[in-house]
Amino acid sequence: MKTAHLFIDYQNLHLSAHDRFGTLGAAVHQSLIHPGLFATALEKRRNELVYEAVRIEKVHVFRGMPSNQNETVPASRNKAQKAEWTRDPRVVLYERPLRYPRAWPAEPAREKGVDVMLAITFIRAAMEKWADYLILASRDTDLLPALEIAHTIDGAHVEVAGWHGDSRLSFSGVKGGPRLWGTRLEEAEFKASKDPRRYA
User: Fold this and answer.
1) Could you tell me the maximum CA-CA distance found in the chain, to the nearest angstrom?
2) Core-most of 11, 18, 45, 147, by most CB within 10 Å?
3) Is pTM beyond 0.90 here?
4) What is an example of a GO molecular function annotated in this UniProt entry (predicted)?
């Protein structure tokens, strides 16, 4: 069986799941995705659809990290989530400190550098042949150049994954260009991917 590494743009995947499947009025944290469970659900669904099956050996998760000084409770939750998720030996977290604007908290903190870190790691994985397949779970078009570059590297096979009904990344901008496989996940996969733990 071929090997695969999964790269998760966590905020993008999480918020997309909340928008797509979350109960109206429900808090965002009620749609929290467990990266290991998501990988298992994705692997099962993908292998039902694609002739050449893969085994996801590593799950690379990219997300922002709240400041303990500015946001004690979110920082504590973030730490607890990291401890829980990395109990799955496949899961590796890559975190960048959130950027707090001068107007914070009236203006929310934002991720800074997460997409760049993901893009660099994705291209490095393609160059160094970390796995037979590299799968990106995001619909952020800022990551399309990384997919395009990785696709041109000899021996690299790239795919995307996301929720059914959402927009998805593709190479469609180039007429006659290559097709990019995308695994579309339904509500059943969302439910199977939800983190059952409640973080205080």
Assistant:
1) 52
2) 147
3) yes
4) RNA nuclease activity
